[in-house]
Amino acid sequence: QHRRLLAPAFHRDVLRPYVAIFNQSTHVMHAKWRAAAEAVGGTVALEVLEQLSLLTLDTLQKCIFSHESHCQEQPSEYIKAIMELSTLVVRRQRHPLHHPTWLYHLSADGRRFARACATVHSFTAAVVQRRRQALERLGHQAWLESHQGRSMDFIDLLLLAKDEDGNPLSDEDISAEADTFMFEGHDTTASGLAWLLYNLACHPHHQERCRQEVHELLKGRDVQDIEWEDLSHLPFTTMCIKESLRLHPPVTAVSRRCTEDVTLRDGRIIPKGVICLMSIYGTHHNPDVWPEPQVYNPLRFSPENSKERSPLAFIPFSAGPRNCIGQSFAMAELKVVVALTVTRFAVRLDTGRPPRRKTELILRAEDGLWLLLEPLPGVA
């Protein structure tokens, strides 16, 4: 039911103005990178996953709440709480004694978790309550007119959503959906971006081809921003993104409960009601589907090579009725950030710190994912 109500919030007409936010947040990150490079006189080594996490958190706060947190440039209690919750969830999974909720609440980690939750929930609840009061005070039409000149954010769209009987979502439901979008949307996209830059650093010829594709697209423009209409005109860059999501899927597995008996090819049956863990990582590295699965080859996703392939062979956003509702949002952000990055920086491997894959809530790297970034000449 909630998914049906949420669907309009991810329509292309809603996503279109978000592209300007993706550009803006990427410019802030690049300014930091250029300053760091200037400080060392050229090429700078940076741990990119944390930098990209701040970027995605920055964009989400703007897209969900219309809130300018400046979290890429200065500390934010809200952002600190979100990052702490992600760390604590992983730590709890690895500590069996912390699995019972009552016992966890008695531990130091449990108390930290409760404080961080309170910070996040109170921020969201305050925004929702403020918007609800404005809607009730102004009335529906006047409230809509007050938005002239600015696009609707996620909270606005949820306030307007109504079910088949004309009932709106409660404040608690809206807060829960906004919090879910923040948590599901920042780490996953940051992981996808970090591994994408790593794969382009490993393959400079693919990186250069992406760079030329973007240069050709932006030729003759006064402002070097990526626009919504540009996203469908980056075919090779899109292939590079998809191949990176295949090789390094941010979410490595999903679980689903069987709603009916499932008969496997060998005749064995998975009974109805059983919860199955499906490996996205394993599916993406299956040599029967993907020849030489460890090789990064964007041309796997060319139209001619994709023609005969099952749509369930590539599932970075899961599949079916419970797939990732935000995948169009994520793909748009991936395209904007990588297109702007390759036109402004040469991205190279930090051979002294090769990444080792580490599966947590998302696919990370032990001790971070380090890359060398060199500002390109003639780019402001």
TrEMBL record:
<dbReference type="InterPro" id="IPR017972">
    <property type="entry name" value="Cyt_P450_CS"/>
</dbReference>
<keyword id="KW-0560">Oxidoreductase</keyword>
<protein>
    <submittedName>
        <fullName>Cytochrome P450 family 4 subfamily F member 8</fullName>
    </submittedName>
</protein>
<dbReference type="GO" id="GO:0005789">
    <property type="term" value="C:endoplasmic reticulum membrane"/>
</dbReference>
<keyword id="KW-0408">Iron</keyword>
<dbReference type="InterPro" id="IPR001128">
    <property type="entry name" value="Cyt_P450"/>
</dbReference>
<dbReference type="InterPro" id="IPR036396">
    <property type="entry name" value="Cyt_P450_sf"/>
</dbReference>
<dbReference type="InterPro" id="IPR050196">
    <property type="entry name" value="Cytochrome_P450_Monoox"/>
</dbReference>
<keyword id="KW-0472">Membrane</keyword>
<dbReference type="GO" id="GO:0004497">
    <property type="term" value="F:monooxygenase activity"/>
</dbReference>
<dbReference type="Pfam" id="PF00067">
    <property type="entry name" value="p450"/>
</dbReference>
<comment type="similarity">
    <text>Belongs to the cytochrome P450 family.</text>
</comment>
<keyword id="KW-0503">Monooxygenase</keyword>
<keyword id="KW-0479">Metal-binding</keyword>
<feature type="binding site" description="axial binding residue">
    <location>
        <position position="324"/>
    </location>
    <ligand>
        <name>heme</name>
    </ligand>
</feature>
<dbReference type="GO" id="GO:0020037">
    <property type="term" value="F:heme binding"/>
</dbReference>
<dbReference type="GO" id="GO:0016705">
    <property type="term" value="F:oxidoreductase activity, acting on paired donors, with incorporation or reduction of molecular oxygen"/>
</dbReference>
<dbReference type="InterPro" id="IPR002403">
    <property type="entry name" value="Cyt_P450_E_grp-IV"/>
</dbReference>
<keyword id="KW-0256">Endoplasmic reticulum</keyword>
<dbReference type="GO" id="GO:0005506">
    <property type="term" value="F:iron ion binding"/>
</dbReference>
<keyword id="KW-0349">Heme</keyword>
